[in-house]
Structures are given as structure tokens and as C-alpha cells.
Amino acid sequence: MEIRPVRTADAAALAEIYAPYVLETDVTFDTERPTAEWFEEKIRAITEFYPFIAAVEGEELVGYAYAHEFRPRAAFAWSAETTVYVRRDRRGGGIGKALCLALEEELREMGVLNLYACVTDSNSQSIAFHEKLGYEPRGGFRECGYKLGRWLGIVWLEKRIGPHTDPPGEVKGVSSN
Question: Which terminus of the chain is less hemmed in, N or C, by CB atoms within 10 Å?
Fold first, then answer.
């Protein structure tokens, strides 16, 4: 398996991976089928500063992960929210873990210190997955979203990946590394 940066040419494959999660599960709060064009814009927006990576086996894209701004204020520059998705028929084989660890390393090199994952509270597999990677539950909200005929809550998980110094170091965008 190769882990590499996502390219806009990957947009259709990313949409194919994400669509079943959107249309058939409560894993994401998105409700409309993702398109290649939607992913092309997402790739452009994220990669302006943060990493967006793909797991590829042979010629097939089997998963992806990215980070994005945690909050839009300067004081949160050392924090990022992470996302990972693996093709549903390929889960459980270490792809998600490899993606998360590679993403974490890129974020550490950028100077990011805190990682956050927002998980639907009914998604016990994702919560357990993140905990195995060293994330700790930090709070959540009950019944804050409605999808597939029911109210859903969220759990926030946190992982610290660097020392918190005073003053903190600079955070550099992925393109400047």
C-alpha cells in the first residue's frame, strides 16, 4: 500500500468511497451524494494549508484522510480536526490506521500540537478506533443533528502530538514544509 498526497484527479474515487457513508449510514452528517466536483473543491481548499492524503493499492484508491482548521481564530492555529474514510469493504485491514499515522506525522512536522476528531456518538467502532490511536474523549453534544429518521449526537476526541511550549512554535502550511 502506498500513501501519497491526494490529487484533484482522485476526486471521483473519493466520492465513490464517501457516498455509501453519506447515503446509508449516520457516520457523517452530510446528506447529499458527494460529486467529483464537490471533492475537487474540497481538495483545493484543504491543500492550501493542510495535508490531504490517499491510500492506494495497485491502481485503486482505498481510503483517504485529511486535516482542516479546527476553529477560525489565530489562537487555535496549533489545533486541527482530522477525518479518515476507508472503502467500506476494506475496513479492518490497517488502512485507516496507516492513513491516520501518516497524517499525524505530517501535522507534527507542520507544528500542529492538538488533533481533534468529531464522531457520531452512535459510531462506537470509530470511537474505539480513535482511542486505540491515542485519542481521548473530551465531550460531546446530544441530539444535535437529524439524519435517517433519528436524532444523533457527537463525541469529540483529542490527541496531543507535540509539546506545549511558551511561546509555541510556528505552524507552517503543508505547502511550506
Answer: C
